[in-house]
Amino acid sequence: MAKSIEAEVKRLMATGMTEAEARETAEYDLAVENGESTEFDLTEEQKKVAKKYTGTGTKKRTEYQFTKRERKPNETKRHIMSLVRVLFEGLELKGECKGVNLSNIERTLDFEMDDKHYTLTLTEHRPPKTPKA
User: What pTM was computed for the model?
Assistant: First the structure.
């Protein structure tokens, strides 16, 4: 140990410290590394205050309620899709298409024609925004 302190004193003296300052610094560093108490340690009261101001605190976690919103039935879209389904069922009776299936009553109609699978999707667009005056 004494050898390591002497090596540290030499290294610190090369930085411009006096031998007394270098020896004091090296001994303090060794004490800190070994976990010994020093004159600069905080008192119990100071440790409590330091803990209070250095802690980040705990934030209550937000618990989300993932519930699917119930949409109002869109009667216009339902009516349009029923008309389209009747049209394709007529085509199915003629043999021009097969497997007509209304997979979403307000949105999609699936069918097969010429051994290929198709889906018709009905989209209702939002009204255009009117510029504010």
Answer: 0.46
